[in-house]
Structures
1.
Amino acid sequence: MDAAWVAANFGEADAAPFSRADLSELSLHLEPKVLEWGEVLFNEGEYPPGVWILQCGAIELIYGTGSCRALVRIIRPGEAVGDIQILRGIKSAFKARAAEPSACLFIERSKFDSLLLTCPSIARRWFAKLALQVSLNHNRIVDLLTNGLRERVARFLLHESVEGAFRHSQLTIGSMLGVHRSSINQILGEFEELGLVGLSYRCIEIQDEAGLTRMAEGCYPAKSPSTTLLKYSSTAQSLGSDIVGGQLAQ
């Protein structure tokens, strides 16, 4: 059952379909785990004890501590964490922790190596998934260097939202984009006035996906929203937490 879930939800199934033998071997290595909110999978500077394939929930990758603490990425269902460090034989550069109650499938470190060596189709699927992530990271860097903040925030919401909503605080957006929270507040206020998003506590709901897509492509509306954003300011203050220079607050 768990192996079938991985075959259907991890990577591109058409690129490397799993045989019955692959599914049988995979099922021997998967261990279901439930993560509580805030539970740490591994810390910065540690060797991950294995690989976690997320089934539901979210996992945060956090770099640094104190004033240098920043959110690097959010792991979503169908993605894995710990695999890159094991494949390279290196310690993790970040801490991985559950951002909400989550369920995952765990593969112990030595079993992960054995699985990739004995099942070429699983290895191909896994490496294709890693290649996709490298491509996404490259696009994120290009986006950072070539696009304005409105486009970047719009693309972020389109990419990171689940079921039409981004259910995290604004400090998360600021941290992942490396931008001060006040700038994120202003951009989201503009989006709200334009009817692109709806704002509530720890939730940004996409209301006009087509319009937000045009914004991400640099197509601004003919009529700009007001610059005072007085109506938005009180809502904005209730959404975020402290973030300075794109860094998470404690």
2.
Amino acid sequence: MKSLEKCAFIAFFALVLVVAPGCLTDLGKSIYRDFFGAPREIPPEFVATYFDGPKVKPGIAVSISVTATGTKGHSSQQYFVDAEGYISMELLGAVKVDGLGLIELQQMLTEKFKEYYLDPHVTATFVTGGGAISPWGSVTVMGEVGRQGPVDMPATQELRLTQALLAAGGASPSANKRNIWVTRADRDGKQTRTKVDLVEIGEDGRADKDMLLKAGDVVWVPLSWY
């Protein structure tokens, strides 16, 4: 009897939420989101961002080497981009690098070093670890996981949903593993959501359903209400 009452209550509760979502309080909307696995309107914390490729920006580390005709030039050195988007280099002093791609950075530094070297050649690469943020972006994992927050993308740009969840400490026992949502933004900022069934991936062996994530994606693992 109790089981029937519980089912009736859930059915009634679901009906109310579907019929009159506009009348819900903030608490009701929160419950609605968790119960059905995804928000009807994407709140700010769920908004994904478009990743336009790796760029030099504050917190990034780059390794730069300079060679030139008739001299050894500079040996390879590592530079951290400061909060204002600058690196401090020998001879050049403070150089604004924020927002540049690696090729753009190399071209700019080559022009600057022509004042000091004959036919300079600059090579720049990203450096990871040591407190530097990932130049390849990150995805944000939220909800019922061990550690909410960003998960760095690898240099290969190959990060599956299950890998991101594992990096975030895994889904909690109370997570709704059948209704995991991935929000993605296109270049124009349009938000799209995709539902992924983690049980289908794991128990049914459907590796093809393990979504390939992109930098800027937001993964939402809702609470299970049953």
